[in-house]
C-alpha cells in the first residue's frame, strides 16, 4: 500500500497507523499525530480504493452503505500490510495504535471487528459500525478513544453509541468524547485524544 514511514525519536515507543478520510492521503493526519505524541513513529497509509479519484480504504455502495465483501478483503489487506511494514521498517508490531478519521476510522474499527487484538489501541474520529450481525473477537483491555459529534449527519449519535457498546461487549476499554459539532475533526477532540493517550501510559 502507498505509505510513509517516519521513525520516532524514541524507537521503543508506539507507532501511529494514520488512516485518512475519503479523498485524503497518507499525510493528512500528520499534524494530528504530532499533537497526540510527537515522539511516536508514524505509518501513514493511503487507501487503495478510488471513488471518482478520491482514495478510500474500502468500497461503498452509497453514503454510509458499505460493500461488505470489499470491506472484509480490504481489512485483511490492511492487516497484512501492517505486518509487512513492521518487518520492513523495523517497528514493533505490538505497539501499533491506529489514528483514523471517518473512512479511516471505519477500517480501523473493522480491524477490531475481524482480528483478535490487531492493535495496541485505537483513536477513532467519527467512526461508524463497520458490520452488523457478526461476533467480535476478544478485545479485552484494548483501549479505544472515540471522538464524535452530536450533530454528525454521517456518523449519527445512535451509531456511535452502538459501536461503543459492541466494542465494550467484546472487552475493549472505550472512552467516547462528544463535541457539539458535525462530521469535521475539531482541534478540541484531538486535544482530548492526546489527553486520553497520555493517561494510557
Ligand atoms: C464511509 O464511507 O466510510 C463513511 O461514509 C465515511 C466517509 O468516508 O464519508
From TrEMBL:
Superkingdom of the organism of origin: Bacteria
GO molecular function: hydrolase activity
Pfam families, alphabetized: DLH
Residues in Dienelactone hydrolase domain copies: 77-185
Name of this chain's protein: Phospholipase/carboxylesterase
Amino acid at each position: 500500500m502507498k505509505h510513509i514511514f517516519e521513525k520516532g525519536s524514541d524507537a521503543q515507543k508506539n507507532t501511529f497507523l494514520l488512516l485518512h478520510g475519503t479523498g485524503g492521503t497518507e499525510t493528512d493526519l500528520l499534524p494530528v499525530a504530532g499533537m497526540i505524541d510527537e515522539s511516536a513513529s508514524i505509518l501513514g497509509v493511503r487507501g487503495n480504493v478510488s471513488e471518482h479519484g478520491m482514495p478510500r480504504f474500502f468500497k461503498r455502495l452509497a453514503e454510509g452503505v458499505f460493500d461488505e465483501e470489499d470491506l472484509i478483503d480490504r481489512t485483511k489487506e490492511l492487516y497484512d500490510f501492517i505486518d509487512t511494514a513492521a518487518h520492513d521498517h523495523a517497528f514493533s508490531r505490538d505497539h501499533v495504535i491506529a489514528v483514523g478519521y471517518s473512512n479511516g476510522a471505519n477500517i480501523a474499527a473493522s480491524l477490531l471487528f475481524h482480528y483478535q487484538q490487531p492493535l495496541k489501541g485505537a483513536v477513532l474520529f467519527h467512526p461508524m459500525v463497520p458490520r452488523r450481525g457478526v461476533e467480535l473477537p476478544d478485545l479485552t483491555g484494548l483501549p479505544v478513544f472515540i471522538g464524535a459529534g452530536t450533530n454528525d449527519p454521517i456518523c449519527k449519535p445512535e451509531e456511535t453509541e452502538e459501536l461503543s457498546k459492541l466494542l465494550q461487549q467484546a472487552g475493549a476499554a472505550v472512552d467516547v468524547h462528544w463535541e457539539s459539532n458535525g462530521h469535521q475533526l475539531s482541534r478540541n477532540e484531538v486535544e482530548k485524544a492526546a489527553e486520553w493517550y497520555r493517561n494510557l501510559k
